[in-house]
Amino acid sequence: MKNVILIAAPAAGKGTEAALLKEQYNIPHISTGDILREKAKENSELGREIKSKIDNGEFVSDDLIIDILNMRVQKEDCNNGYILDGFPRNVNQAIAYQKMLDKIGINIGVVIVIDIDKNLAAKRSAGRVYCPKCKEVYSINTQEKKSKVDGICDKCGETLVKRADDNEETYMERYNKYIEKTSPLIDYYEKRGVVYHVNGNNGIASTHEQVVKILGE
Fold it and tell me: Using CA atoms, how far apart are residues 52 and 212, in angstroms rounded to an integer?
């Protein structure tokens, strides 16, 4: 199994694909945001530093994130690969991450970019609802992501809610920012020959089939 970096616009299905890969290959889904939030709960100098930054709305430095990732990817559950989500977000972070990998002797693996039509993604975003309790995400516009009972979470029975910013107008702003920030990162990885593009326009099953084919190469 290869290490995987997932890159995708909002509502392109990155979180869903990460969950499918985690289940199919039994490898960890590493979200830098989740790691930072967990570290912030620890009663340690590092935990208190991260908590302070999060509470004050400050960015956690790239060096600190790299240090945390360094520890995480060397744990035993990453021996057969892992899925990296939310990092790197820009070329500087990608360079720092590569230096870390070179130092500890881990191969970068593959970078999978889920491409999606902007208007389709906006429609998906407008139909997105989520569970406030377990955070499971559903869609009222996509058959594959609908809950079994309208408005009710399949996992815990909580009433589903909609984010205030999940509308088409706001989405277009988020999509344009994604393109602006992420295009140089994708170019950086394409020059290294590790990027694979998949078509995310045809739903969850199609996207996953393409990703599995790439990982099998």
Answer: 40
